[in-house]
Amino acid sequence: MITKSTHQKIRYKGAATVEAAVVFPLLLVLVFGVIEYGWMFLKAHQITNAARSGCRVAIRPYATAQDVIDKVTALMATAGITGETVTTNPTDITLENVGVGGTVEVEITVPWVNMAIINFPLLPKPTDLQASVTMAKEGF
User: Fold this and answer.
1) Other Cβ atoms closer than 10 A to 40
2) How far is it, in rounded angstroms, from Cα 110 to Cα 56?
């Protein structure tokens, strides 16, 4: 025979199951969001470091744009990032073109689909990650 207290316990268990069914998808989205955005911030940091290193190469007196691209490509490969677009401003960064003290900019753009770890469809994501660094050209 089911008593009143046993009937209430069964009803509470059912309520707990319904609450878990409502909360679990929200918790799942939160966990995937933390993973995806943490990964995005890591990759953004790696792209910024590659742009900074590329700009350090670009400001040397006898650097060429190809030197910058080679440095950035090597750093991006180490980070496991592919499909980057590297641009320098000006495009010809030789000392004759820029001059001592002139500014050199290195910009890297990478499509997010090349780096997504989970690609969870419910989370807003950027189309590209981009970093830009500007430094003054060195010379003697």
Assistant:
1) 18
2) 20
CA distance 53 to 22: 48
**Cα(89)–Cα(33) distance, rounded to whole angstroms?**
35
Contact between 105 and 89 (Cβ < 8 Å) = yes
Structural domain for 53, as ranges = 4-136
pLDDT of residue 3: 59
Per the structure, how many domains does the chain have? 1
pTM listed for this prediction: 0.79
Element of type H or E holding 76: helix 65-79
CA nearest neighbour of 109 among 76, 135, 134, 70: 76
CA distance 109 to 119: 19
Rounded mean pLDDT for each run of 10 residues along the chain, 140 residues in total: 58 77 90 89 94 93 89 93 88 78 91 82 85 87
Specify the pLDDT at position 53.
Answer: 95
